[in-house]
Amino acid sequence: MRRSIATVSLSGTLADKLTAIGAAGFDGVEIFENDLIASGLSPEEVRRRCADLGLRIELYQPFRDLEAVPPAEFARSLRRAEHKFAVMERLGATRLLVCSNVSPAAVDDDALAAEHLRLLAERAAEHGVRVAYEALAWGRHVNDYLHSWRIVRSADHPNLGLCLDSFHILARDVDPYAIETIPGEKIFFLQLADAPSLPMDVLYWSRHYRCFPGQGDLDVAGLVSHVLRTGYDGPLSLEVFNDIFRQAASMRTAQDAMRSLIALEERVGGTIGELPGHASLTAPPPAVTPTGFAFAELAVPPAAAPGATSRATSEDEAAGEPLGRLLGALGFVRTGVHAHKPVELWEQGEARILLNAGSPEGREGPALNAIGLESPDPAAAVKRAESLLSPVLPRLRDPHDAQLDAVAAPDGTEVFFCRTSQPDHTSWLDDFSEDRRDPAGAAGGITHIDHVALTQPWHHFDEASLFYQSVLGLRPHQSLELPDPYGLLRSRAVSTPDDRVRMALNVAYVGAADGRPDVAWQHVALASADIVATARRLHESGTAPLAVPDNYYDDLEARHDLGARRHALLRELRLLYDRDEHGEFLHFYTATTGRVFFEVVQRLDGYRGYGAANAPVRLAVQHARLHHRSG
Predict the structure, then answer these.
(1) How many CA atoms are closer than 13 Å to the CA of 543, on its beta-carbon side?
(2) In 38-186, which residue ranges form alpha helices assigned H by DSSP?
(3) CA nearest to 324, candidates 373, 312, 266
(4) CA–CA distance, 370 with 376 (Å, rounded to integer)
(5) Which DSSP letter does residue 293 get?
(6) When you count CB atoms within 10 A of the terminal residue's CB, does the N or C end of the chain come out lower?
(7) Are 517 and 504 a contacting pair, CB within 8 Å?
(8) What torsion, rounded to 10 degrees, do the Cα atoms 189, 136, 268, 494 define?
(9) Cis ω on the peptide bond leading into residue 399 (within 30° of 0)?
(10) Distance (Å, rounded) from C-alpha 80 to C-alpha 62?
C-alpha cells in the first residue's frame, strides 16, 4: 500500500519536511495549509519538489467550518474554497480534507450540512478535486464517523466521501466495527495516529499527545483492518500532532514514522490475511525473540581497565578503580581479556559484564554502552532489524574475531545479536583469552542479568518504545510516572513474553536547571538466587549498598507485616521490598560509578514487576549523594 505522512507531523520548514519525508521512503504527503502559507516556495515549486522526491501530494488540509451555517457565512466559505481549489490545482493535489464544523455559528441540522457539502462537492468537481469529510472528535454537532457517513450518504455526490481518522474514532471509544458497512469507494482517505491513554480533554489530547502507531495505547491495527475489509485502496497516512516530534530532527522523526507503518502493516496483515484485489501489505522477516542477555558492556576510561590494554594476569591490576572492585565485591571473576581489543570479560553464573576501555563513551566515566541479546538466529534477527530501518553498525574487527552484528537503539546503545553456546560455530567468547578463569568459582549468588534500565533522551522515548517492540518483538507494559526530587520520571518496561529479556526505558531530564543535575543514569539489574548472601558479601567487602533511609523501613513496617526478624534483616542489609499479586521482590542498589550503577534483585513466587514503588526512594538518595559530592 502507499504510505503517506502529513507535514504537520514533523519539525522544520516545508522544504525540510519534504526532504525528510522523501528520504524516509514515503510515497506521498499531506500538505498542511499552514506549512504552505509560511513557506517561501510557490505551489508550483512545492509540486516540482515533491515530484523530484518521488512524492505524490495525497491531500491538502484542512478546510474548516464549512457546513450547517447561516447563508452569509456559507457564501464566504464557498469563496474561500474557490481560492483553495486554485491553490490545489497549482500543487497538483486532488483531495481536500474538510473537518466537521466546530464554530458556534453551526446549527444542528444534518439536511443543511448535507446540502452545503453537496454544493462544495459540485464546485470541487469543476476543479478535479474530491472532498473528504472528517468527523472531528470535538465537532460541534458531528463528532463520530457514523454521523459523518449519514451526512455524506445523504448528500450523494461522487466527489464527496469520508476521511476516517483513527484518533478521532478511537479517542471517543466509538466501535470501529461498523466501518465495514461503508463502501470502500466512499472512504476517500485514511489518517492514522496512536496516543497514550490520558484522562484529559480530547482536543488538548489530540493537539499535543498523538504519536505514531505502536507508540500508544489505541488499537490502530484493528481499525485499519476494518477499513481494509471495505476494499479501501488509498494510502495509509500518518497525521500526528505531538509537541516532541515538532521539536525533534525531522529526518529522524520521518524514519521513525516509516518504521511505525511497516510494523503496523505487519500487524494488520497478521489479522486480515490476503484480501482479493487488495494492495499488498508489508511482511518483514518475522521477529526473532531473544532468549536472554548474553552480556552488558560498560564503556570505561582506559585507566579503569588496565588489564584490557595489555595481557595482564593480575586481577587486582585488571580490576581498576572503582568498577572492578565493585564487580569483585559482587562476586564476579575476571575470566578473560579480548585478544585484539581493550575489553575485559567478567562473569558470574550466566551474567557477563564487559569492560570496554576502547569506547569514547567511557571518557567521562563508566556508561552502559551495549547489550548482547541471546538469539536463536542472529542472521535472521539482523534481517528483521534492517527491514525496519535499523541497519547493522559498521565495526572494526580482526579477521579472526567472531561475527557479531549490532544495530543502534534510539539512545545510541548498541544491541548485539549473539549465540553464545553454538557447538557448530565460533562463539564470541572465543575472542577472549584461553586461560579464562572458571566463573563457577564466583561466590556472590548472581545467576544472570535480570533486566537493564536505559535512560532515553526526552525526545526519543516513544521512538525507543517502538524500536524495541518492532525490531526485537518485545511487548510493552504500562507507562508509569515516578516521583523524583526534581519532577516526574517517565518509565515504560518492555519484555519478551516469557520475561527472559526485560528492559526498563526511562526518560532523561531536559537539561539542568535550578539545582537539578543533568544526569542520565543507566543500570544493570543482576538476578541473585540468595540476595541476603549477596548483600552480606558486599557489606563484608567494605562496599556498602546505596544507603536507604530509616524512614523507608519505618514506612515499610506500617505497610507490610513481614515479621520482626524479616523487617530487621531488611533494615540491616538495606534491602528494599515490593510485592504484587504474583509474589515478592527484594532488591538493593550499589553506588553510582560514572553514569552506571548495579541493582541486585531476587524475585520470589513469580513477581513480575520492577520495584517501581521504591524508585522514588532510590532517586532521592542518588540525587542527595550527587549534590553532596558536587557541593
Answers:
(1) 23
(2) 43-52, 71-91, 110-126, 145-155, 166-170
(3) 312
(4) 19
(5) E
(6) C
(7) no
(8) 140
(9) no
(10) 12
List the beta bridge partners of residue 351. 348
Which residues on adjacent β-strands are paired with residue 494?
476, 503
Candidates 543, 546, 586; CA nearest to 566 is 586
Distance from chain centroid for Cα 51: 32
CA distance 108 to 142: 8
Q: Which of 553, 569, 521, 539 is nearest to 617 (CA)?
A: 553
CA 190/CA 166 separation, integer angstroms: 8
Chain centroid to CA 267: 17
Degrees, nearest 5: CA angle 94-100-103: 125
The grid coordinates of residue 75 equal 457564501
* pTM for this entry: 0.90
Q: What is the mean pLDDT of the chain?
A: 90
Interatomic CA distance for residues 477 and 179, integer angstroms: 29
- Start-to-end C-alpha separation, the chain: 59
Pairing label, strands 236-238, 187-192 = parallel
Q: CA of 129: how far to CAs of 90, 93, 369, in Å?
A: 12, 8, 53
- How far is residue 129's CA from residue 92's CA, in Å, rounded to a whole number? 10
Strand partners, 31: 60
How far apart are alpha carbons 2 and 282 in whole angstroms? 11
Amino acid at 380: A
d(CA 335, CA 328): 12
**Cell digits for 262?**
511497516
CA distance 22 to 573: 57
Give the distance from CA 199 to its chain's centroid.
21
DSSP 175-214: -GGGGGGS-GGGEEEEEE-B-----S-HHHHHHHH-B-TT
Q: What is the pLDDT of residues 197-208, one digit of tens each?
A: 888 899 988 988
Residue bearing cell 542477555: 293
The rounded distance, in Å, linking the Cα atoms of 366 and 297 is 10
Residue 459 has pLDDT above 90, yes or no: no
Residues linked to residue 194 through DSSP beta bridges, in sequence order: 211
Identity (one letter) of the amino acid at 327? L
Residue type, 616: P
Lowest mean pLDDT among 219-223, 263-267, 505-509, 593-597: 505-509
Partners of 192 in the β-ladder: 238
Instruction: Look at strands 584-589 and 576-579 and give their pairing.
Output: antiparallel
Q: How many CB atoms are located within 10 Å of the residue 599 CB?
A: 23
Q: Which residues, 6+ apart, have CB-to-CB distance to 217 below 8 Å?
A: 194, 195, 196, 197
91 Cβ contact partners less than 8 Å away, ≥ 6 residues apart:
31, 36, 43, 46, 47, 57, 60
d(CA 430, CA 336): 10
Least confident range of 244-253, 370-379, 432-441, 612-621: 432-441
Give the pLDDT confidence of 382-391 residue by residue, as tens digits. 999 999 999 9
Report d(CA 370, CA 414) in Å as an integer. Answer: 4
Helix, strand counts (H, E) of the chain: 19, 23
